[in-house]
């Protein structure tokens, strides 16, 4: 299986996003740092421009002092008046040095400073110094000097000094302006840049989480659909390689589950078909068996009735044996048929008001025949006030017959079978007890299963199909009742059936049903 | 004198039913298939038909349908004597209209005779 590698794996995508975010953070930091460095440098320049201006002013002051000294000395020839000049000389040297080293303000200012110093020196060395020396040499002699030239030299210096001062001030205000401007720019641009960076960052994060989360969301909803029974649900294969692999795996899983369920359904259908076939088979066989048995019982009846002439005692005994066994066979076939109907769920109920007392009495009469020669005592305890119950009379009779014939079958010689009917809540309880061999406790829960036979019954070779109690239980449950068993090995067994008085709880229905039953009869 | 038509494919059971009804002095005619039974019904106009359901050829239900379709035969009461349990029969089926009694084989002693007498004396 190959995947379209759009952007690669989740890990790569996340790393790429984090890297881009890191670059953004670094960029923002760098911009802030550069801005800060630039402004510091501007402030440095500013802080160096001011001393230049100050030094320049001091230089003018000192040279003016020198001029004043020279002028006083020239006029008075008194040494004391030369003091300002003498004082100024070392100061001037210092100031010149300062001016020369201050490299601020670019080459133009520097050139002007050099020019200024040259002018000052021209006045000092070319005018003031020779003049002072001349006076010192001969204080009384006439002075030969060009006063105009001194003034011109000094004016030239003053001019140069003014130029330096003006340029210095101009540069200072230019720097101040630049600082102000860049500060203003920063206030405007930094937030804009920051917003841009934040916007791009969050867009990137959202895009990356969508790329990863969208396919996962898709798979989640597919799983939800699968779980809610939509077996055909499949997920779209897209996104990073991992989610694509997961999606393909999920789809494969869903497909195999769908196949599995389909196969299971097929198997169930097949089993149901088999079961139906078997049920149909049992039903057909039962019907086919009943046809010859009808002839057998019919003709034996006629023989007994003397239709073919009176039977002698031995003949009568033989015919009776044929009749009994044919009826037993018929009962087995009947059980099989009923069991197959129960299984197929087609055992219908024709309900009416049933006189339970007479149903029980009829059943007792019917089983007395089986008890002949065994000296069995069949005791009946039915309260006279026992009312009617809502039920299917033939089925209730079948239920009593099965319970009673079991009790008789498992009772020993001179045993005792007891039928007790009593009120139980709204309904009735019927107990059928025998003094037979009993049923092992471990086998009691399986007693109502189809074809199950107690080990005690099998050991004693007592005939039976293991269907009787299954049928009883089905009839009891169809009437909304319940059946329980109590048994002690060697002492006997008691079956207790509880039936509600009116399973449907509607008396109005009774009349209608009886009328309909009457119409049909 | 009453005539009863027995339609039953199994010869032993046919003989048995015939004998049991004839014992009480009723004339019995019999057929082994539905078609044959319908012919006899048309020619003899019996007072009662005792009918099996599982038959070779047309079934007992089809016999009833054809009887119902015939103006002259639809009034004849039908008594079903069958292996088929009445609980397996759809009770809303209109074709059962002339059926008076549905007996399940083997029919207990006396019940067939009683049902025949009741149907004839109606």
Can you characterise this structure?
The complex is a heterodimer of chains A (521) and B (122). Helix content of chain A is 68%, strand content 9%. Mean pLDDT of chain A is 85; it is low at 1-7 and 504-521. Chain A has 521 residues and is α+β, with helices and mostly antiparallel strands. A 5-stranded mixed beta sheet of chain A has the order 2-4-5-7-6, covered by helices on one side. Chain A has a two-stranded antiparallel sheet with strand order 1-3. In chain A, helix 1 packs antiparallel against helix 2, helix 4 (147-227) runs parallel beside helix 5 (241-304) and helix 5 (241-304) runs antiparallel to helix 6 (313-344). Chain A is rod-shaped, with a radius of gyration of 65 Å. Chain A has helices at 10-76, 83-101, 106-137, 147-227, 241-304, 313-344, 356-368, 393-410, 455-459, 468-478, 508-520, and strands at 352-355, 377-381, 388-391, 416-424, 427-434, 482-488, 492-499. In chain A, strand 4 and strand 5 form a beta hairpin. Chain B is α/β, with parallel strands linked by helices. In chain B, 35% of the residues lie in helices and 20% in strands. In chain B, strands 2-1-3-4-5 form a 5-stranded parallel beta sheet, sandwiched between helices. The radius of gyration of chain B is 13 Å and the shape is globular.
Write a concise synopsis of the structure shown:
Chain A contains eleven helices and seven strands. Chain A has 521 residues and is α+β, with helices and mostly antiparallel strands.
Give the key terms.
heterodimer, A: 521 residues, alpha+beta, 5-stranded mixed β-sheet, two-stranded antiparallel sheet, 7 strands, 68% helix, rod-shaped, disordered C terminus, B: 122 residues, alpha/beta, 5-stranded parallel β-sheet, 5 strands
**Average of the residue pLDDT scores of chain B:** 84
Major sheet of chain A, described briefly? 5 strands, mixed
* SS strand fraction of chain A: 5-15%
Oligomer: heterodimer
Number of DSSP-assigned strands of chain B: 5
Biggest interface, chains and residues, is: A-B, 19 and 18 residues
Q: Give the overall silhouette of chain B.
A: globular
Low-confidence stretches of chain B: none
| Portion of residues within helices of chain B | 25-40%
Q: Mind telling me the C-alpha Rg of chain A?
A: 65 Å
Helix-strand category of chain A? alpha+beta
| Helix-strand topology string of chain A | HHHHHHEHEEHEEHHEEH
Poorly predicted ranges of chain A: 1-7, 504-521
Number of helices of chain A: 11
| Average residue-wise pLDDT of chain A | 85
């Amino acid at each position: 299986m190959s995947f379209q590698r759009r952007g690669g794996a989740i890990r790569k995508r996340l790393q790429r996003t984090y890297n881009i975010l890191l670059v953004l953070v670094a960029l923002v930091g760098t911009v802030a740092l550069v801005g800060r460095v630039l402004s510091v440098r501007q402030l440095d320049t500013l802080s160096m421009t001011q001393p230049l201006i100050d030094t320049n002013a001091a230089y003018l002051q000192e040279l003016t002092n020198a001029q004043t000294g020279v002028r006083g000395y020239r006029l008075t020839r008194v040494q004391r008046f030369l003091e300002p000049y003498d004082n100024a000389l070392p100061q001037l040297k210092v100031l010149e040095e300062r001016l020369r080293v201050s490299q601020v303000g670019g080459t133009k200012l520097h050139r002007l400073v050099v020019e200024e110093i040259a002018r000052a020196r021209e006045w000092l060395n070319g005018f003031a110094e020779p003049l002072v020396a001349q006076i010192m040499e001969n204080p009384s002699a006439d002075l030969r000097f060009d006063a105009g030239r001194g003034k011109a030299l000094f004016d030239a210096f003053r001019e140069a000094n003014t130029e330096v001062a003006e340029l210095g001030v101009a540069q200072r205000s230019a720097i101040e302006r630049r600082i102000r401007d860049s500060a203003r720019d920063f206030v405007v641009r930094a937030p804009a840049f920051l917003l841009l960076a934040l916007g791009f960052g969050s867009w990137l994060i959202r895009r990356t989480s969508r790329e990863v989360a969208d396919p996962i969301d898709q798979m989640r909803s597919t799983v939800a659909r699968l779980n809610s029974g939509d077996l055909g649900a499949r997920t779209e294969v897209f996104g990073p390689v991992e989610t694509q692999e997961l999606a393909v795996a999920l789809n494969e899983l869903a497909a195999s589950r769908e196949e599995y369920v389909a196969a299971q359904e097929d198997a169930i259908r097949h089993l149901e078909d088999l079961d139906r076939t078997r049920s149909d088979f049992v039903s057909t066989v039962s019907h086919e068996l009943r046809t010859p048995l009808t002839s057998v019982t019919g003709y034996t009846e006629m023989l007994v009735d003397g239709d073919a002439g009176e039977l002698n005692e031995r003949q009568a005994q033989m015919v009776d044996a044929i009749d009994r066994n044919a009826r037993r066979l018929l009962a087995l076939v009947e059980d099989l048929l009923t069991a197959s109907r129960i299984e197929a769920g087609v055992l219908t109920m024709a309900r009416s008001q049933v006189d339970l007392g007479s149903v029980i009495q009829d059943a007792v009469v019917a089983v007395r025949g089986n008890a002949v020669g065994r000296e069995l005592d069949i005791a009946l305890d039915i309260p006279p006030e026992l009312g009617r119950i809502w039920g299917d009379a033939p089925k209730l009779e079948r239920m009593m017959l099965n319970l009673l014939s079991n009790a008789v079958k498992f009772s020993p010689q001179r045993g005792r079978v007891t039928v007790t009917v009593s009120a139980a809540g709204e309904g009735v309880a019927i107990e059928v007890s025998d003094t037979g061999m009993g049923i092992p406790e471990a086998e009691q829960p399986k007693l109502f299963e189809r074809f199950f036979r107690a080990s005690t019954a099998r050991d004693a070779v007592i005939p039976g199909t293991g269907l009787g109690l299954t049928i009883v239980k089905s009839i009891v449950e169809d009437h909304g009742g319940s059946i329980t068993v109590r048994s002690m090995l060697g002492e006997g067994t008691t079956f207790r059936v509880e039936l509600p008085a009116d399973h449907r709880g509607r008396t109005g229905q009774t009349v209608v049903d009886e009328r309909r039953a009457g119409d049909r009869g | 004198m009453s005539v009863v038509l027995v339609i039953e494919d199994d010869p032993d059971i046919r003989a048995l039913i015939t004998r049991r009804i004839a014992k009480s002095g009723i004339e019995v005619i019999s057929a082994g298939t539905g078609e044959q039974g319908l012919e006899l019904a048309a020619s003899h106009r019996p007072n009662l038909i005792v009918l099996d359901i599982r038959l070779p050829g047309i079934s007992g239900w089809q016999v009833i349908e054809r009887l119902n379709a015939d103006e002259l035969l639809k009034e004849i009461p039908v008594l079903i004597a069958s292996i088929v349990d009445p609980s397996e029969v759809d009770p809303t089926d209109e074709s059962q209209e002339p059926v008076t009694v549905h007996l399940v084989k083997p029919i207990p002693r006396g019940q067939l005779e009683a049902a025949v007498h009741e149907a004839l004396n109606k």
